[in-house]
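User: Sequence in, structure out. Go.
Assistant: Echoing your sequence, followed by the structure tokens.
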Amino acid sequence: MNDYDADRIREVLGRRGYEPTSDALEADVILLNTCSIRRKAEERVLAAASRYGALKRRRPEVVLAVAGCVAQQEGERLLDRLPAVDLVFGPDAIARAGELLDDVRGSRRRLAATEFAPPDEYTFLTAEPSEVGVTALVTIQKGCDNGCAYCVVPGVRGAEVSRPLGKVVAEVARFVHAGAREVTLIGQNVNSYRGADAAGGFAHLLRVVAAVPDLLRVRFTTSHPRDFTREVAEVMRDVPQVMPWLHLPVQAGSTRVLAAMRRGYTREEYLAKVELVRTLVPGVSLTTDVIVGFPGESAEDFRETLSLLDAVQFDSIYSFAYSLRPGTPALALGDDVAPEVKRARLHEVQALQATITTRALERLVGRSVEVLVEGESRRGGQVCGRTPGNHVVNFAPPAGTAAEALRGRLVTPRITCARTHTLLGQVP
């Protein structure tokens, strides 16, 4: 979602005459687009703002802006905490970014724009890409109504709002026309999508998007386990363009901890969803999120998380130690798991998953797997792309074929080697 927002900010500012630069010393405006889902991300924002503050002391005319979820969360408080920051604006104000910058530059006054648009008046910003990669992100829904105990999203992204189906399809078509061959439909909870002109909900949207001419692949993220339905799994089974990859965040393996997190499902219900999708979509690649050290998590609760990872055998996971977040219900629970215990548990989770991921990748060695080539890889002389299951593959182009010639094409290399997180292949 933040990547998508950053692209829209670039487009909005481009229409006001701004051009991007990778050198902060050349910039008239330095803009930090932020995430507040974890405390560490917020701390990095504050550190970056301080660094650029030093640059501003040498060039006072530079405008320093903070956008995104930290901006929404802190609002005017951020102006107090960071004297070098001139402008703070949240995700709902992206469409006005150019006007806000003009105001700051013209008046030299500091501004905070963090008002939420009312859900019934919210308008999604239209993407107008001039050039795109092989893969593109398309927002279908924003905000969240779930209220998980640890999560800042309802406070920084607002209530759930779904984008009209026709607008989604039109944006996908624009990206495809500009050169994209894969789109990922994104939202805080895509399975709660309820577009006004999509009577069949998210499953219907998937079918309609997949039918866009010249679109080769469709993915989606993120799915709340409670709202993931059999109908969506059937689309994954029946529609070739919808890839067999599902990110289904579990967060914890203990029903007791899941209840404290306000996740709305039990361990058994989550495992039943996994069984459903694996039955309907054999070979599906599953990934997840895990939080360790949530308030009240006992050693036994933690062992249940380990046992769930062992039972499901996810292809990969994102794992984090719990951190207190402002405005969340979990603040009332305190933070009673010691930092050293959190670190040890996180290390144990990651060590177990490393073994599981290695086995998952090694199972692909010797197979020929279809890969959508995204471009040249960081390994010289190779291209990279992803399998239907979202595994990254690096391989050398056939003799006499330039890497650029394969960009956006489906190629079927044979997998020759599994590395820590990626695969190596060879084209026959």
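User: And one key feature?
Assistant: The CA atoms of residues 205 and 336 lie 43 Å apart.
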